[in-house]
Amino acid sequence: MKEFFGFGGYARQPEGAFSWQHLLFVGSLLTAMVVLAIVLGVHNRNKLKSDQNRVLIWSALLIDAVEILKIVVFCLRSNSIDGLLYNLPLFLCSIQLIALPLAAFSKGRIKEASMDFVCIFGILGAVFGTIGAIQNYNAYPVLGIENVASGITHSISGFASLYILVSKMASMKKRNIWITFVILMAFCIAAYITNIVIDYNYMFLMSHDGTPYSIVYNLVGGNPVLYPLLVVVLFLLYIWAFYAVFYLIAAKAKVKQGFDLQADSLTDSENNAEVTFRK
After folding, report:
1. Which of the residues 21, 73, 143, 154 has an alpha carbon 20 to 30 A from that of 246?
2. Which carries the bigger pLDDT value, residue 54 or residue 79?
3. Higher per-residue confidence, 265 vs 136
4. Which of the two residues, 177 and 14, has the higher pLDDT score?
5. C-alpha pair distances (Å), 155 with each of 36, 48, 158, 236
6. SS3 track for the chain
7. pLDDT (mean) for 99-113
8. CA separation for the pair 161, 141 (Å, rounded)
9. Which residues lie below 8 Å from residue 260, measured CB to CB, with a gap of 6+?
10. What pLDDT, on the 0 to 100 scale, is given for residue 29?
């Protein structure tokens, strides 16, 4: 357990990004995430809102409990508050630590917008925070508190996102889009200010750190103004694209449902006509 929590440093060497240990670990997490989301989503699809919401409550409690445990361990290891300062919920994926509890415990438009936010960024965070977390798996052993806690919290975010979609809890109302934008922009501004104050890289607004943001970073030559602006623009474009795809799928589903209802109506009419003819 001392080795797992990293007290005194790790004796093991990191297995490395995309090693079989890395892929086996995150593959197991993502498989469990998808299977549980589909099973529970289908099971609760036609149940009361309170029954559907119970899954989100447990997800919110678990994701925050794991994150708090990680921060406590980091503070104990460093014997300072650095474990807190450098683990604030100011990464894009970390916003779920606040958005998911809001989705579970709030009401009205705040609940709707929070569920939309979880829905939009949960799956993206689950993939990039597990398979795409190259810097973490190159720096720490796979079975260490850093990667295990990160893998679990990112998978819970992805699970909640898929569950909301499968159980048809997502509202994705156009009137709430601006709330989603405001939530994201508020965290971006807070992250950027915090980066300057403590010299860190929340939201990857200062550097790419080996993440896919390296494409944007190299495109602008690491410009300290253009790079963070383009990262934020990418966030906003992703939100717009997600809404667009969601509405496109929803529109096609409505058209198909309309054809099905029309076909059922024609079948009923034919049956009634046949019964009348026989009489």
Report:
1. 154
2. 54
3. 136
4. 14
5. 11, 25, 5, 23
6. CHHHHCCCCCCCCCCCCCCHHHHHHHHHHHHHHHHHHHHHHHHHCCCCHHHHHHHHHHHHHHHHHHHHHHHHHHHHHHCCCHHHHCCCCCCCHHHHHHHHHHHHHCCHHHHHHHHHHHHHHHHHHHHHCCCCCHHHHHHCCCCCHHHHHHHHHHHHHHHHHHHHHHCCCCCCCHHHHHHHHHHHHHHHHHHHHHHHHHCCCHHHCCCCCCCCCHHHHHHCCCCCCHHHHHHHHHHHHHHHHHHHHHHHHHHHHHHHHHHHHHHHHHHHHHHHHHHHHHC
7. 92
8. 28
9. none
10. 97
Exposed/middle/buried for 200, CB within 10 Å: 0-12, 13-18, 19+?
middle
User: What distance in Å separates the CA atoms of residue 190 and residue 46, rounded to the nearest whole number?
Assistant: 39
- What pLDDT does residue 172 have? 86
Q: Which of residues 273 and 175 earns the better pLDDT score?
A: 175
Q: Using one digit for the tens of pLDDT, what is the confidence trace for 122-154?
A: 999 999 899 988 889 999 999 999 999 999 999
Rounded Cα distance, 121 and 163, in Å: 13
Max CA separation in the chain (angstroms): 90
Q: What is the C-alpha separation between 256 and 264, in angstroms, rounded?
A: 12
- From CA 74, how far away is CA 72, in angstroms rounded? 5
**Could you give the CA distance from residue 32 to residue 105 in angstroms, rounded to a whole number?**
25
- Residue 113 and residue 107: Cα distance in Å, rounded? 10
Do 100 and 60 meet the contact criterion of CB atoms below 8 Å apart?
A: yes
CA dist., res. 239 & res. 232, Å (int): 11
> What is the model's pLDDT at position 267?
53
Place of tokens 């997502």: 170
